[in-house]
Amino acid sequence: MTTRNIIAAGFGGQGIMAMGQLISYAGMLEGKHVSWLPSYGPEMRGGAANCSVVVSTDPVGSPVISKATDVIVMNEPSLEKFETNVNPGGNLFINSSLCKSEPTRDDINVFTIPVSDLANEVGNPKVANMIMLGAFLAVTDLVKVETVIKAFTKVYGDSKKKLLPINEKALETGINSVKSAGCVGGVCHIELDKTNTNVKSEYSRQTSANIELSSSDIEDIDYLKSIDKYNAEDDEKIFDNELSIVEEALRIEKESIKYYDKAAEMLEGDMAADTFKSLSHQSDEHVSYLEGLKKQVSEKDEISFGDKIKEALTRDKEYDWGKVDVDKVRLALNVFSIGIDIKNQSIKFYKKASEESKIEEAKKLYDELAYWEDFQLGQLRGQYEVYRDEWWADQMFSRS
């Protein structure tokens, strides 16, 4: 059984209830059992507001929560009231824009994020709750971001569809604030750099084994982050014709090879490096198929290699990542997190390429590549979870 008991708290008008509803609706859409229980203070707007959310693989026995796996606090009074409700080893998310007190617990994971300040940077102070929700999802991976977006109109109504873009941006800001800081547990302070509005972190582990990323590690991570991914903003140009679609597919695969090669280099000496080298080789094969498709599209030849490609690509293979050296766990978490993002974008592209292409054999190829990317995404996510559990265990925490 997997169950998360979540308390979100703040004052009325901060979108506390909506945040809880979005998690609940998203959980429902993904086939999970959920409950949502609101609680208001004397005044809805400006008064105290909190809600309890349960998301579980099994039926929910009670919506009432006394001890939570995750607590989200958006203001100072909520921090004072609900910090004690976090289970040992659980997560406490703090809006550091409004909470100036330090938490007193040393047996929980603490994430301080200036979501109100970040919301102002995004351009709308009302999306602070969505930024916090993005940070929460980046840490817990409880539901998919795409599902939260689908749930948006369920919570806010069809009349608010026009606000989807700013809210999607807010979710992305929250996710990136955690990922770019390399936060995985312990105590993670994310601060807003007023000079360039970038998010940076001051990270401290709660054990004496304080392993920090070296300057070369940070440079390598920055390189991985710079790898070009599919961008839906370029759709008009990408999907203009068959040739432009296959050229984008080639670009995506070649950028993936850059990621795999650098990841293998960064984790050299661990089994994960060998697996990344294997994935790089597989992407080389994908490039060769796409080059063949490009040639036939360019020369307007009959295309007839779809079945052969399907036979070659649909090989479900569980990768053996092995254990990573303890000194490299934090580095590995960054590597895998970036890889997950790259895979998500690649899947979006290949699915749309299949929809937009008018060539049946090209559709088959794009479908197979989407399948392959999705399979690899599952592998990366699974191993990310393994490394994260190891990291938390090393800090004497356990996943809740």
What does this structure look like?
The chain is of the alpha/beta class and 400 residues long. The chain has helices at 16-29, 76-82, 115-122, 128-140, 145-156, 164-181, 215-226, 235-238, 242-266, 271-298, 306-313, 329-356, 360-394, and strands spanning 3-11, 33-40, 48-56, 68-73, 86-95, 109-113, 187-192, 199-204. The chain folds into 2 domains: 3-204, Pyruvate-ferredoxin oxidoreductase, PFOR, domain III (Pyruvate-ferredoxin Oxidoreductase, domain 3, 3-Layer(aba) Sandwich), CATH 3.40.920; 215-394, Ferritin, core subunit, four-helix bundle (Ferritin). The protein is globular and about 70 Å long.
CATH homologous superfamily annotation of the largest domain: Pyruvate-ferredoxin oxidoreductase, PFOR, domain III
CA radius of gyration is 22 Å
The number of helical runs is 13
**Share of residues in strands:** 5-15%
Helix content: 40-55%
Q: Poorly predicted ranges (pLDDT <50, ≥5 residues)?
A: 42-46, 194-211, 395-400
SSE run = EHEEEHEEHHHHEEHHHHHHH
